[in-house]
Amino acid sequence: MGSITRYAAINSRLKAMERRFLAKEQYKKIIKSVNYEESISYIRDETLYGKIMNNYNLEKFNEENIQYILMKDYIKNFHNISSFFNGEYKKLFNIMFMKFQFEDLILILREKHTGRKYTDENLLITYDSPLNKINFEKIISSKDINEAISMLKDNRFYKYLHGGLNPLDEELLFRLEVSLDYIYYVELMKALDNIDKEDKDIINKIIGSYIDLLNIQFIYRAKKYYKLSSEEILNHTIPNGFNININKLKRLCYHKNLEEFQDILADTKYKDLFKYGVEEDYLTEKYISSYIKKMLLKYKKEHKNNIGTVIAYLELSLFEIKDIISLLEAKRYCIEDEELLSYISFTID
Predict the structure, then answer these.
(1) Which of 55, 182, 191, 236 has its CA 20 to 30 A from that of 220?
(2) Conformational region of residue 87, where left means phi above 0, alpha means psi within -120 to 50, and beta covers everything else
(3) Which InterPro entries does this entry report, sorted A to Z (predicted)?
(4) CA 341, 346, 349 angle in degrees (round to 5)?
């Protein structure tokens, strides 16, 4: 299948799938729901997500099982979209899928680290996907976190994880999450070498921006919450950012105070996203999400015969799921509507 023919076919499919996205008016109705139960009822009965939810014979819905249901549907759609591609593009989608496998893996490793027993592989979102290459059942059966990691030795990313991990380290899970982020983005950027230049440039811009923001956020968190040295922070940053070069990255890692951190970012596109020591973390997350969404919506609107439309759909779908779950959580804790708006990735007029 040629490039134009392939993207014409997939873009037609995506157009139909995009109809599920919530309009701002629907978000407003969720926000204005009287309580938590009413907000869930609205999603189930008045949106296209209800059809997915009703496939599950559950007596009661909550934000946890709704998130699982929506993510399982997302994984199915991801596989269907990947089936339009072959060759180097197929390899690219297999690596993109690692992101979700790593989320399942962290879920298991967290249980191993805390000593709680994780028993049901069917609660993992990637377990039964045709794209899955990890033997989760074997990992779940391991007796501790070290044995769990050793069971990954046949996977390409094992070399990044084994050795140097102390099970008594209070920041072990944080280090594992950072390592898996590193693996994912390094492998993803390597996979771009053999795809069409137009598609490569688009992904470089989108993923490179993600890398920039992930690095800045990691440095921000590492300095604010964890006892990591500047050298260790630098060693865990991800290469191939789009706007932050290695020299600026080093300066960020070795910054001495809040003012210097802000000054280093002052001449970048991200200067208004991080107000170190000033903003609450959830607001920083909102600013990052808004920045990325603006870029993705541009590719969605253009709807060209390139990979931009595909990446935009996949990433915007994830943002929507996250926004829905954030709203439900806020409703459950009876957060006021005005504050509730701070937890989603966009502004409602």
Answers:
(1) 191
(2) left
(3) ATPase_V0-cplx_csu/dsu, V-ATPase_V0D/AC39_subunit
(4) 70
How many angstroms separate the first and last alpha carbons of the chain? 43
Q: Is the pLDDT of residue 5 over 80?
A: no
Q: Which ranges constitute the DSSP H helices of the chain?
A: 3-17, 24-31, 36-46, 49-53, 63-82, 87-114, 136-140, 145-150, 158-161, 172-190, 197-225, 230-236, 246-253, 258-265, 281-302, 307-332, 337-340
Residues sharing a CB contact under 8 Å with residue 62, sequence separation 6 or more, in sequence order: 40, 328, 332
Residue 198 parent element (H or E) = helix 197-225
Written as one string, the DSSP assignment of 58-90 is -S---HHHHHHHHHHHHHHHHHHHHTT--HHHH
Contact by Cβ (8 Å): 79, 96: no
According to DSSP, residue 117 is labeled P
Residue 158 DSSP label = H
Percentage of the chain beyond pLDDT 70 is 93
- Between 69-73, 215-219, 278-282, the lowest mean confidence (pLDDT) is in 278-282
Length of the chain: 349
pLDDT digits (tens, 9 = 90+) for 296-344: 999 998 878 999 999 999 999 999 999 999 999 999 999 888 888 887 8
Query: In the numeric block, which tokens belong to residue 347?
Result: 């502004």
49: tokens are 């997500």
Which amino acid type is present at position 34? V
